[in-house]
User: What shape does this take?
Amino acid sequence: MSKKKNLIFICLLILGVFLITSCLPKPPVTEGILKGQVIVPEGTLQAKDLTGQALPDATVNIIDPATGDIIATTVTDANGYYQVFVPAGGPYLLQVVKDGVVILQITPQVEVGIEYDLGTADCNTTAVALIALAMMDAGANLADINLADIAADPNFDDVLSNVTSIIEAGGDPTESAVIEQAVEDFLSPPAPPPPTTPTYTVTYDGNGSTGGTVPSDANNYEQGDSVTVLGKGDLVKDQDGISFLFTGWNTAADGSGTSYDAAATFNMGNANVILYAQWSAITATGPAGGLVFYDKGEVSDGWRYLESAPSSTEWSGIEWGSYGTLIGGTETGIGSGKNNTTTIVTWLNSHSETGKAAQICDALTEASYSDWFLPSLGELNLMYTNLHIEGVGGFTSVYYWGSSEGGDNTAWSQFFDSGFQGKYLKNDHNRLVRAARAFRSTAPTYIVNYNGNESTSGTVPSDSYHYEPGETVTVLGNTGTLVKTGYTFTGWNTQADGNGTPRAEGSTFTMGASNVILYAKWTINTYTVSFDKNGGDTEADPTTKPATHGGNVGTLPTAPTRTGYTFTSWNTETNGSGTEFTASTTVTANITVYAKWTINTYTVTYNGNTNSGGTAPIDSSSPYEYGEEVTVLNKGDLVRTDYTFTGWNTAADGGGTNRAVGSIFVLGASNVTLYAQWTINTYTVTFDSQGGTVVTSQIVDHGGKVTEPTAPTKTGHTFGDWYKESACTNIWDFTTDTVTADVTLYPVGAP
Assistant: This one.
């Protein structure tokens, strides 16, 4: 490079082609214009604010690459600018010559009447040119040198940096040993340094700490080195009114990685290590001065932590209460103690019991907090496990009451000597009581407890959220299908008698500074009693009457009527086999009652109707029920002189309904008398004409007289009289004689 002293500022920048508008006179329509500037330095493209020195008097040749002929030439002015008219066509080679050094570059295709600004040559192309010159000194042909490859080489930046620094300082880059070495290093890069052994760091993270300084380990560890874990120093974490306890470090913020205590050691792996401080609220002092024995890790249902009351508040000799009665509605799970307590206290207060376990916890005020409760069985076990077993909390190794009910006579208790849980008599006073509270911050929390208020089935809704004062409560609906027999659910009220503040499903209110009990509000049902005539001919009047649940109808309606039956009462069954319904019967639902009918009975009596002998028959089946079939009896020994019995009739004169012996009729709604019907006897009077002409016989009623017939004729005889005997002893007197039996009359006459 030192041999090229006069070959200094040979630079060409390949910036691309930009179409511009020329302010110069328009060239001939067959030419275009190439223009640009050669300047040293302009700085790199990354430092365009640098001012530079123009390269004047450099020759710019435009060469036709096909022939090698120079078709246009110009010289840069004092500011390094050049402009040359070029025939349309191309592409061409652009040649800049200064002090005998030539560098070639391809220009764009030239169009007629267009100016092409080829931009400015700067330090970048100076560095390229210096490397190219060195390559040419080493015997390379310019045509074989790809200038773009030089600029793209990752080692090019070192040459460019040195060229820029020297030119900016006003120096001569061709006289710089530093640049000469940089160029040589570019052409023959030195062997890379031997690899170094990687090292790794240990960083400590406070992981939510609220005070103090995170410890720092400035060591760089190689893989396999032993690392001694630092202590927490003065790190602290105060949150939600709790001074959290430092429990060590872990490779994961959530504690799911590898845990390390202070002063523990481990071997460094092949990556940096971050150790996160681990904090625990368990056994830490809570806002009310007790010890935290449970942390959910996040707020849900309005709370996160459970705190036991200080040991100074512990009670002994306390009964559970409600011995002999199942209160119901208590649970054993974690988070249920508050609702359990409210349910129990509500029942105890309404039954005039005092001083029981849940009541004294509910009434406790400690460190200005009054949101205490008797812990559930699950919560009681957490007290035992997380506090007593750890030797903190001031518990005694005896039995403690929980708020979970066991039955009519028992409730759950836990033995803090062994952890055993069992059901014990509610009236056992040999138990201790330790209150608890749930919280999420320093503010107290309160609950909404729903009360069935004498419901007979279903379950009360459960709101497990613990509200801080001022929070909005949304009232639940009857989600557990509460039922009170005879009543309709109409919402909630702050008083059991319904005289408090009504709370409708979905309405909201602001939580105050005490627990809230919402009682189911019940409206008594009104029922309809329907009176069914049950086959009657007329309806009851009225046919329906109202009655409230547990009440009665007061008075019964006018009874219906029914042919052949007598109304006796109202009954719950159509066949009368149910329960009698009276004006004072208690009504508990809509009901239909049915007229109860007693079927009437009627007699069937037989009348001889002027019989002359014998006795009218008696029907042993009489009386008959209405509608029953009656079989008509025979006359028995009834007789009537000179008459023949012909049957029975419902009227003595035979003008009623005939009833034949052995016939069957259906009894109506009245007594029946059947009268014997008699037909007078008739006899045949025969006329024996003794060979004379035939005389027609006569039928004559008993006691009737024979009509004298026309006398018969007989040849050779004269008719005389009719005689009663064939011997012709007694003449039949047609005017006085009567017929009392069949009779034959005989004629007498002379020949």
Remarks:
- The chain has seven helices and 50 strands.
- Residues 123-137 form the longest helix (15 residues).
